[in-house]
Every structure is written in structure tokens, then in C-alpha cells.
Amino acid sequence: MSEIENGHGLQHRREAITGLGDALRLLIEQATATEAPTAELLRAAELIRQAAAPLGERVRGRFETAAADDLLGGVRLYNPVTGLGSAFAPPLEIHREGDVAVGTCSLGRAFEGPPSFAHGGVSAMLLDQMLGYAVTVSGRPGMTVQLDTGYRQPVPLYTPLRLTAQVVTVENRVVTATGTIATVDDPGTILVRATGKFVALLAEQAQRLFGPVTGSDR
Ligand SMILES: CCCCCCCCCC(=O)SCCNC(=O)CCNC(=O)[C@H](O)C(C)(C)COP(=O)(O)OP(=O)(O)OC[C@H]1O[C@@H](n2cnc3c(N)ncnc32)[C@H](O)[C@@H]1OP(=O)(O)O
């Protein structure tokens, strides 16, 4: 019987994963921004290795989903963009406002490209997630087959950002969506725009790609 079934509770585990994610995000921010003495860096590296060891005692394999996740329910705690348990995620929070998906986040030092601004690949990653969300909630989920990004102005670090996405066309299995990044303070000035194409998988494609994860290949 798993720990979750055994009474510790799914909600409790999700809260613990979120707490660990918060701590890891703090660690990444501090470790990226630090100008602490070199001796402190060496000491921190040792402490972090010690902290990581027990986490590595029980890990899942490539095709196993996390016990606290709910794939069909859309709970992905380790998603690298939105996952509250992910050390890497800003995390981006996304909600719906009518037909438009609206996201908010702020990017720290770890996401830096040009000095004091976000890396362009990070903007593309955020927008891929935004467009994917809009496509999914439109009822036609699919995988990204094309993502075009236009960088009009650099995206500032340590600044609340407002992202949007919406579906614009549906042609057979191809759904096209567009999205933007702006700051919360100046939502009318678009910093980055993206257009993405998403393709709904055929049953054969879904089976080929995800059969080992869903167990439908057994
Ligand atoms: C709430 C949760 C939110 C979740 C958000 C998640 C966001 C993140 C999403 C991702 O990042 S997904 C990961 C990145 N994407 C991939 O890894 C996909 C890799 N591509 C594939 O595996 C195959 O392309 C795929 C199985 C998706 C489709 O298979 P095919 O390439 O054989 O396409 P197919 O021959 O079935 O063609 C289907 C349609 O797509 C069209 N198509 C395919 N590739 C295209 C392309 N690159 N550009 C434009 N159209 C394309 C193709 O013309 C055709 O159009 P029609 O139906 O109108 O005839």
C-alpha cells in the first residue's frame, strides 16, 4: 500500500511537494544571485548534497508518473513551467478570463539571458505553456508542432509579468493559438508575441508516444 493510500493523504503530500519546491526555488535564486565568500559556496554545496541524498533513495523511472500527480485531472506538480514542486518553474500561474488564458509570474536571476533581462528561450517556454493551456481548455488538446516567437522588447527580470493566449483557428487536427508577454504595470506594451500550431494526436500516435506511461501497452 502506498504512503498516500496509507493515510498520510494526497493533499498533505502535495503541500509537502510545494514546500520543497518553494525551498528549491529559493535555493536556485540565492545560488544564482549570490556573491557570498567562496568558503560559503563550498559549504553550501556539501550541505545540498547531504539534503539531496535521502530524496534519491526512492525515485520513479522514466515512464512512471509521480504518485501525487493526476494526469487526466491536469495536476502536474513537476511541470517545468507551472509545477509548484519544480525547482525550475517560475512558477507560472494560469487562469481563464473568458476565451483568453491569462498567466502571471516573475522571473529571477536563473532565467537571465541578456544582463537584467530574461533569456529568449525562457520566453518561448512560457508561451508554449500558455498556448498549450489555451488549446487544451478549448477542448482540442494537442502537441506543439510549431512555435514562432517575435521578440519586440526585452523581458525584465524581477518584474510581475502578464501573459495571454487564445485559440485563433481550428483546421482539421491543427489548432493555431497566439500569445503575448507584457508587464503587469504596462499590459498594453507587448514585449514578446508567439504563434503556435498544435496537432491533436491520432489514437495510434498517442499509443506510440504515451503507451508506456499510461500502461495501455501492457
Ligand atoms: C492544461 C495543460 C496544458 C499543457 C500545455 C503543454 C504545453 C507544452 C506543449 C509541448 O511542448 S508538446 C512537446 C513538443 N512537441 C513535440 O514534441 C511534438 C513532436 N511532434 C510529433 O511527435 C509529431 O509531429 C506529431 C505526433 C505531433 C504529429 O505527427 P505528424 O508530424 O506525423 O503529423 P500528421 O502527419 O499526423 O499531421 C497532422 C496535421 O498536422 C500538420 N502538421 C504537422 N507538423 C506540422 C508543422 N510543423 N507545422 C504545421 N503543421 C504541421 C499536418 O500538415 C497535418 O495537417 P492536416 O490534418 O490539416 O492535414
Automatic annotation (TrEMBL):
<keyword id="KW-0443">Lipid metabolism</keyword>
<dbReference type="InterPro" id="IPR006683">
    <property type="entry name" value="Thioestr_dom"/>
</dbReference>
<keyword id="KW-0809">Transit peptide</keyword>
<dbReference type="Pfam" id="PF03061">
    <property type="entry name" value="4HBT"/>
</dbReference>
<keyword id="KW-0276">Fatty acid metabolism</keyword>
<keyword id="KW-0963">Cytoplasm</keyword>
<keyword id="KW-0378">Hydrolase</keyword>
<keyword id="KW-0966">Cell projection</keyword>
<comment type="similarity">
    <text>Belongs to the THEM4/THEM5 thioesterase family.</text>
</comment>
<keyword id="KW-0053">Apoptosis</keyword>
<protein>
    <recommendedName>
        <fullName>Acyl-coenzyme A thioesterase THEM4</fullName>
        <ecNumber>3.1.2.2</ecNumber>
    </recommendedName>
</protein>
<dbReference type="InterPro" id="IPR052365">
    <property type="entry name" value="THEM4/THEM5_acyl-CoA_thioest"/>
</dbReference>
<dbReference type="GO" id="GO:0016787">
    <property type="term" value="F:hydrolase activity"/>
</dbReference>
<feature type="domain" description="Thioesterase">
    <location>
        <begin position="117"/>
        <end position="183"/>
    </location>
</feature>
<dbReference type="InterPro" id="IPR029069">
    <property type="entry name" value="HotDog_dom_sf"/>
</dbReference>
<keyword id="KW-0472">Membrane</keyword>
<keyword id="KW-1003">Cell membrane</keyword>
